[in-house]
Fold this sequence. Notes:
The chain has helices at residues 12-15, 42-54, 87-92, 96-107, 109-119, 140-154, 167-173, 193-206, 271-277, 325-338, 383-398, 416-419, 428-448, 454-470; strands at 31-38, 60-63, 79-81, 131-134, 163-165, 182-185, 188-190, 210-212, 219-221, 224-226, 231-239, 249-250, 256-266, 284-287, 293-297, 303-310, 347-358, 364-368, 373-377, 411-413. By secondary structure, the chain is an alpha/beta fold. It has 3 domains: 6-76 and 193-257 and 360-419, FAD/NAD(P)-binding domain (3-Layer(bba) Sandwich), CATH 3.50.50.60; 133-191 and 259-358, D-Amino Acid Oxidase, subunit A, domain 2 (D-Amino Acid Oxidase, Chain A, domain 2, 2-Layer Sandwich); 428-470. Helix 5 crosses helix 11 and helix 13 (428-448) packs antiparallel against helix 14. Pfam families: DAO.
Amino acid sequence: MSIRNPYNALSFWFERLDAPLVPRAALTRDLDVDVAIAGAGFTGLWTAYYLKQLAPELTIAVLEAEIAGFGASGRNGGWLMSALEGSGAMLRQLPEAQAQQVRAQILGIIPEVERVLQAENIDCDFHRGGGLFAAARFDEQGERAKALLDELRVQGFGEDDYCWLDAAAASALVNVRDCRGGIYTPHIATINPAKLVRALASTVEKMGVQIFEQTPVRTIAPGLLETATAKVRARTVVAALEGYSATARAALPRHTIPVASKILVTEPLSPHQWQQLGFATRPAFSDMSRLISYAQRTTDGRLLFGARGSYDFGAQIRRDAALSAAEIAQQRRYLLDFFPALQDARITHAWAGSLGIPRAYRPHACFDRDSGLALAGGYVGEGVGAANLMARTLADLILQRDSVLATMPWAHSGPVANTLRHWEPEPLRWLAYKTIDRIFSWEERLCLDPASPHWKKSLAGRLADRAASFMH
Ligand SMILES: Cc1cc2nc3c(=O)[nH]c(=O)nc-3n(C[C@H](O)[C@H](O)[C@H](O)COP(=O)(O)OP(=O)(O)OC[C@H]3O[C@@H](n4cnc5c(N)ncnc54)[C@H](O)[C@@H]3O)c2cc1C
C-alpha cells in the first residue's frame, strides 16, 4: 500500500509502486565524499551503480531536488530502447570496424539492463515485446518509413535488427488507422520506469551510496555541490540534471534545453477493445509522424499514449505535472486519430514531464580530469535505455579505465564547456523551436487532409526536411 502524497500523483507509474513513497532525509550538514552527483534520475543513479560496482571503496553522495525519479525518469513512456538518438550521424562517420563496436554497444543496452534486473532482483514489469514504427494515417508516412529503413541499413543494422512488415503483418501487431506497413524491431522492451528508478535508488543505497532527497543543488562547481544549507566537497562532481540543467548554477554552457512531453493513460480496456487494437504481444508502438508519438499496453491492460513536445520561452521548466482540461482534450483528439476505436474509453491519468534536448541532438558522457567535473545526458527523449550506456561510459571515464566505452563517439574527455555545442541565445532558440513545430504541424495537417493539393504537401515536406536538418 502506498502513502498518498503529492509525489504519488506525478504519473500513473508512481501510483503503481508497491513501496511507500516517503522522501529520504534531506542533506543538512556539510559532507566530504569522493563523488557527488546532482540528480537522482536514471543518469545519476546508474552512474552511482557502476562506480560502486567497479570501485566499491568510493564514497558517493547523490543530491536530489525532490525524490528519486521525480524528473523524466519516473514519468516517461516506459520504452526501454537499445538505440541512441543521433546514432546515424555517429555511425556514418566511422570506419566499419569501429562502427561495428558502436552498434554492439548500442544493441547491448537492453541485455545489460536485463542482466542487472536479474542480478539485483528488480521487478519493473520488464517485457521484451519489440516495437513497431508504423506507416499509418497518411500516405507520406510510407515513404518516410522506407527512407528510415534505408538509413538504418546504411548505419549497418540488418534485417534481424529492423525489418519491414507489410500492411497486414503490421496491422496484426497494432491496428492503427490506415496502416500501410511499418518497421519492426526486437530492440525495444517496455517497463514501469518509476519502479526501475525507485528500485535503482534502493539498490545503490544498499551498496553504500548516500541519497539525499528534497535537497536542491544551487551550484555545481569543480570539487563542490552547494545547496541552500550545505556544501558537499568531492574530487569528482557529476551533473545529471538533463532537462533540469538550468536549475543549478554551473560553469557550463547552455547545452541542453527542456522540452515538455505529455502522456495520457486510458482505463483498463475490455478484451473486445484489445481485439480491435491489437497489441497482443505488447509491442511498443509509434508512427512516422514528425510530431512524435509513443504508446504501450500496460501490464494491467490500459493504453498509454504520449505525443508531441512544447518548449517555453527562456527554457522554462514545466514544474506542474498535471495537464489542463484543454491539454487533455487536445491529446485525446490526437489519440483518437490513431485509434478511433477508443472513442468511448475513459482517460484516467494524464501528466507532463521535461526531457532534455542538447544542441548537438545526441547523447554525451563527458569528464574533465583536471577539474573533476563530469556530465551525462542529452537523450532527446530516448534516455530510458541510453542513460544506462552513458552512465557506464561516464564511470569508465571517471575511473580512467582503458575500455571500449571510453573510445565511443559519445565519450568526451577534457573541459566540458569546450566539448558540448551551445544553444543559441533567446529569442533565437524559441523562434527556431516554434518555427520547426509550426512547419511540422502544418505539414501533418496537409497530409491528413485528402483535399490538400499535391504541390502544397510537397512544399511542406521539403520545408519540414530542411527544418529537421537544422537540428543535426
Ligand atoms: C513524458 C516523457 C516521456 C518519455 N518517454 C520516453 C520513453 O518512452 N523512452 C525513453 O527512452 N525515454 C523517454 N523519455 C526520456 C527519458 O525519460 C529521459 O531521457 C531520462 O529519464 C533522463 O534521465 P535523467 O536521469 O538524465 O534525467 P531526469 O530523470 O530528469 O533526472 C534529473 C533529476 O534531477 C533532479 N533535479 C532537478 N534540479 C535539481 C537540482 N537543482 N538539484 C538536484 N536535483 C535536481 C530532478 O528532480 C530529477 O529527478 C521521456 C521523457 C518524458 C518527459
